[in-house]
Amino acid sequence: MNTLATLDTLDTLDTPAALIERTRMQRNIERMQQRMNALGVRFRPHVKTTKCIDVARAQRDAGAQGITVSTLKEAEQFFAHGFTDVLYAVGMAPHRLQHAMELRRRGCALVIITDGAESARAIAEFGRANGEVFDVLIEVDTDGHRSGIRPEEDALLQVARSLHEGGMRLGGVMTHAGSSYELDTPEALRAMAEQERAGCVHAAQRIRDAGLPCPVVSVGSTPTALMAQSLEGVTEVRAGVYVFFDLVMRNVGVCSESDIALSVLTTVIGHQVEKGWAIVDAGWMAMSRDRGTQKQKRDFGYGQVCAVDGTVLEGYVLSGANQEHGILSREGTADTDIAARFPIGTRLRVLPNHACATGAQFPEYHALGEDGALQTWGRFHGW
Predict the structure, then answer these.
(1) Is the dihedral of CA 238, 240, 243, 245 positive or negative?
(2) What local confidence, expressed as pLDDT, does residue 4 receive?
């Protein structure tokens, strides 16, 4: 995963290619870290967005403490590059406990999570059978979005006791307000951030009132992290997509197009003039199938089209996509001058709907400096 300088430029790099604008990325990193510092909480970025050592190092250099991962392969790879404080923030399946134990015994301070009694019992039974004391957080559902135990449920204390009395280290509680992605006003985002905070803090207090340990109160999503007014009672925040941002986050209202650090470099390869189309070599294999803006206030199709220098070309989007072909068109009236406007060979950039999904289509990033120099940054794949 070493950084490599390349001789390519934006005019010679093969396409499609995943580009990172380093200045934008660094600005995004600093914005989030400064906000967490001001709110007095530890920040543990979610590295699933980038799965990239170079990006994670930049986050750590800015002040991040520890990382969050979504696969044990990520934990393995980041640990191999010196990241030892790792939260695996996906419910622990029993067949992965052996791998988790091996990582811990090699020196990785891996924390795992559970969201139910059956999972908690499996963790405790495996730990006792193998002489391993796992650090475990209980996932709390504060918004009905996905998984977790509701703060008021009896199951919360049952799971806490099962872990503690089963010999595991009950680390605390964690939550993720994923439904914040469905909001688009500051008022709604601030309310969701407070709902996330209050629910997780309440769950922690219930555990403490039962005489059980609960040192960690971990919350986070990019929108709620950026819009929270208070994080009283919270010990750490997790967020991931903020490092690149994307069009979904633009529609949510926590960034603008000029903050989006990830784009796909593409080349015009043909035209359908009568339809007002230019055909590019970035289809859904490059952009992903994610149409996350489709249900939002503005639908960007498969992405917002920009000039090669990153300037947004208002009204032009990737309106359709096949596996290796993208359809560039103007919103509304068809552009009958499309061939003259975008001749064969024209280089363009496309901003993604969902940075995590688009990044996952590529084995590496090409990091663009202000001087136009490119560096190649590796990216992890798979599970």
Answers:
(1) negative
(2) 75
